[in-house]
Amino acid sequence: MSLPPQAQWPTGDVEQLEPLVARVLAPNASPYTYTGTQTYLVGTGEGLAVIDPGPADPAHLEALTRAIGESPVVAILCTHTHRDHSPAAAPLAQMTGAPIIGCAALHIFSDEPRVDAPFDQDYAPDRALTEGEQVTGPGFTLTAVSTPGHTSNHLCYALEETGALFTGDHVMGWSTSVVVPPDGDMADYMASLDKLYAREDRIYYPAHGPAVEKPKQLVRGMAGHRRARERQIVKLLTEEARPIAALVPVMYKGVSEKLWPAAGQSVHAHLIDLERRGMATRSGDIWAIG
Predict the structure, then answer these.
(1) Is the domain of 208 the same as that of 90?
(2) What residues does the Metallo-beta-lactamase domain cover (predicted)?
């Protein structure tokens, strides 16, 4: 997590990243979306797949319509159903006639406050993909890679022809992913990082931030960062039992206080994982080791 850079970003423009991949940036920059949600167009003029159509923002939908032009859309795919990723799927499907194919619907009702984008309760796919299932179009094949953790329904998509992987919010170069209980799960997130590390993808295209040109190096670093955070939690709680609100200022010293609520959610996810493994206990809002 970090505050978005102070710069003008090409929202609404089509950026051709490689022959089969183009990108359109939505105008929704924030501390949780960085410069905004990046919608990817995969394919050629003979047929396209749209990955993470983004928010149902009229300007973004107009930009996507311009970018698509006369090309038929064979599928609209979402990596997960946070509201900065999937709400534009339904209006785009109406405009193009394309089916919504990808992650499963997820309906979470919780009294716990969310610091990132809440879930899109209206998302309704025509077909939900599971691990290894594919979507094909003229000259491209996208394979679903199940990566729960950030959300339980998170999918990445592998472009088989080029070795690119569309990683949604699971792996991003600008920030670690926020893991928010009860749906977000730290153990699942770590397992999904291990899963990607075992792959041989050439490049990652995340939903936020720049492309990742050294995927294994980044994933190794992210896993190491999470393990370091866990060790930090264990050390602090070994010294003294305390609530999450007392852990965050120590652990995230130097990080903008605006981002502490999100950091606290990831700390909570770590603690739940430690509790399941028999390493932490809680009494009310006080956590302890043992």
Answers:
(1) yes
(2) 36-208
Residue type, 152: S
Domain co-membership, 181 together with 281: no
Give yes or no: residues 191 and 249 share one domain. no
Q: Does 117 share its domain with 260?
A: no
Q: Do 131 and 60 sit in the same domain of this protein?
A: yes
For residue 200, give its domain range.
14-224
Task: Give per-residue pLDDT as tens, 168-217.
Answer: 999 999 888 999 998 999 999 999 999 999 999 999 999 999 999 999 99
Cα four-point dihedral sign 272, 276, 280, 282:
positive
241, with CB counted inside 10 A (0-12, 13-18, 19+), is middle
Give 42's strand partners: 21, 49
Residue found by looking up tokens 């919780």 in the block? 110
Question: CA-CA distance, 256 to 252, in Å (whole number)?
Answer: 8
Task: Reply yes or no on whether the pLDDT at 115 is more than 50.
Answer: no
H, E, C per residue of 168-206: ECCCCCCCCCCCCCCCCCHHHHHHHHHHHHCCCCCEEEE
What is the per-residue pLDDT across 228-281, written as a single tens digit (0 to 9) for each? 999 999 999 999 999 999 999 999 998 889 889 989 999 999 999 999 999 999
* Separation CA 204–CA 210 (nearest Å): 9
Domain boundary pick from 177, 205, 224? 224
Does residue 240 belong to any structural domain of this protein? yes
The number of distinct structural domains making up the chain is 2
Q: CA dist 240 to 2, 52, 200, Å?
A: 29, 43, 43
pLDDT, tens digit, for every residue of 213-233?
999 999 999 999 999 999 999
Do the domain assignments include residue 5?
Answer: no
